[in-house]
Amino acid sequence: MNEGSKHSRQPRRSPTVPRRLLRASGLLLAMASVAPLAGPARAEVPSAPEYQLKAVFIYNFDQFVDWPDGAFPKADSPLVITVLGDNPFGTVLEQVTRGKQIRGHEIVVRYAQDVAKIGQTHVLFVGAPYNQNPSEVLQKLTGVLTIGDTDNFTAAGGMIRFYSERSKLRFEINTRAADKAGIKVSAKLLHLAKTHGDD
Questions:
Q1: Which of 92, 137, 150, 186 suits a disulfide with 55, CB 3.0-4.6 Å?
Q2: Whole-prediction pTM
Q3: Which CATH class is domain 22-31+47-196?
């Protein structure tokens, strides 16, 4: 695959991330800041507060994950987060990660309209239309933390799926998919998640 460009897709404008979310320095703080969702998320017009929360969660997930050996060519290579397909975050992911590092790796956010332009990445959020049949994308990836929010995402082999329960944002982790990809997920993160693939 050719390396995706940071500017391959211009993100939509979005509201500024509330300071209370940007101040979250760890997963527990992010979890504590979760507010009830305004209502069922509409795929075509995502709720801004919902995706602000998801962006904070994605940043925090990265702090509780270890990638396989060789995932970073150099000690200071960037940690790349890629949004595949439609971008429901606007500029929120960039706001949340700007100036941040994960274990010495600067965070870079990229956008790819098709699978061939994903390039080297460490985290992949699978957006529409690829999220309707994510297995076609997931089977082509190795050593990548995959995240989505469709009902079938973890069942199709994705690693982390956002879902709503009692109007709160939750997440599920497919431990089998993570193990297969060589992704080590912290027990602290697993403790906060619903798990899939343990049986």
A1: 92
A2: 0.79
A3: alpha beta
